[in-house]
Amino acid sequence: MAGKAVLLSIRPRYGEAILLGQKTLEFRRRPPGGDCARVLLYETVPVQRIVGELQCKAVHSRDPDDLWQLIEYCDELPYIERDQFDDYFDGCDVAHALEVTRAGRYCRPVALAELGVDRAAQSWRYVSQAQLDELQRLVGTPHMLTPSQLRAELSRSDMPAGREASRSRALGKIANNVSTPSEKGWSCGRR
After folding, report:
1. Would 32 be classed as within a structural domain?
2. Cis before residue 181, ω within 30 degrees of 0?
3. What are the percentages of helix, strand and coil residues in the chain, rounded to 5?
């Protein structure tokens, strides 16, 4: 395994959106330190279980206004409104986004106690190799898919209302922008 593994606390609606390939960025006021290529998803109340994992291509640390451009480019608009974003990053000079390249769901949710973890961190915590080994024993390795592969598994009728319209708006803004996020090295899981 390259890099460190982290356990990331996340609200269930956002965790599910990542595992369905609909959300490619996870926002944080404080990013995991170092190389966090493997991220275990701990869904908070009411689930309170580790439900899957993602692979993180990069952690983008930017001025909040600059990071907002990435949100528009990656079509994250259905998951966060500008006022929510501003409230969340209020007082921060730097905003952080983990870029998801692959995600996979475990065959069953795993309680923290099964890995010897007393409680979840408010944001994230490192996971030891012994805990990863125990997780492997309990649930095996999830089948990791890119966001586009995950989305392809969903039927078109399952797409949330307004999703196509927000995608068109975001892509239209990029077409009119000379300095697009892709020119800045942002890929948003696109291949």
Report:
1. yes
2. no
3. 35, 25, 40
In a domain? residue 189: no
How many structural domains are present in the chain? 1
> In the 8-state DSSP scheme, what is residue 173?
H
Residue 115 CB neighbour total at 10 angstroms: 19
Judge contact between 120 and 7, C-beta under 8 A: yes
Question: How far is residue 120's CA from residue 142's CA, in Å, rounded to a whole number?
Answer: 21
Domain that holds residue 156: 5-184
With tokens 């994230």, the residue in question is 124
**191 domain-assigned:** no
- Which stretches in the chain have pLDDT values below 50? 1, 155-157, 159-160, 162-191
In a domain, 190, yes or no: no
Residue 29 has, within 13 A of its CA and on its CB side, a CA count of 11
87 burial via Cβ count (<10 Å: 0-12, 13-18, 19+): exposed
The DSSP bridge partners found for residue 28 are 96
Maximum Cα–Cα distance for the chain, whole Å?
51
3-state secondary structure of 127: strand
Give the CATH number of the domain where residue 73 resides.
Answer: 2.30.130.30
